[in-house]
Design a protein that fits this description.
306 residues; Tumour Suppressor Smad4; 4-stranded parallel beta sheet; 11 helices; lipid metabolism; Lipid_Phosphate_FormReg
Amino acid sequence: MYKSGMLIYNGNAGQKEVKKTLSQIIGPITLAIPSLLLLKTEKPGDAERFCRQHGEQMDIVIVMGGDGTVHECVNGLAALETRPVVSILPAGTCNDFARALGLPLNSKQAAELIAADSIERAVDIVKSNDRYFDNFWGTGLIAEASQNIDEQTKGTFGKLSYYVSAIKSLSDQDRFTFTLKMEDQKSEKEAVMILILNGGFIGTTEFPVSTIEIDDGLLDVLIVREAGFVLLKEILTAKTTMTWEENQTSIEHFQTASLTIELSSPRLVDLDGEHYKGKIHKIELLRKHLRVLVPNITADEAEKTN
């Protein structure tokens, strides 16, 4: 189906495991893609550079890594005029974007989709100033929590490290003011966290908001006015999306395709787990901007997996 492809993998991951995985997937992939370019990242920015340099010449780009590697590749591909299909082989701690897409979380099984019965799904990507994100944008509590995560702890305990960090951040709630602009509307607000969701998973946990869809042309915006252990408990223990949405008392929730957030002062911002700093953020959803390989499952099969 694809004549040319590029496989990008994280060179900073555990080398023994990477070599084992590559040995398992290279054979089946090369049978499906006659011309395959294999590229290893050695430093931050490599994956993005590879995609910018070679993306338009490829039919498919295969990304083997975690959310950070996927984020880099999205930023390398999103600005291209001609964008290849993307195949994600999850190999990180959380793999949140892969979860949102319903992909197998095993790299070998995900690789089998390339030659198996898969379909191309057009998904939304979001532009924030001159950067892009696929899963979420956050500032305040979420950015502080993710910055405080110890990488060794993250690798050992996975999503638990996010929760521990979040609990530590909650002890010192940093309120901030900002201006929200949407179309002709402008309002001054105060919050401890702003979260903009395209995908529905953060730290492997599915966020309990029923309207989140990765291809509906809308972002789900959550403005947290108050924070504390009650909020954390609501988010992490919500049994159903409806229960959480009915009981939420300290979160403003709405949907939009574009907005501008002007913070009172430059703050740390988290895009898919990668950190940036800024004051004014113009955010615009790009409808069905990337095509991604996903399993071709029937409605009955989808029901069985839920």
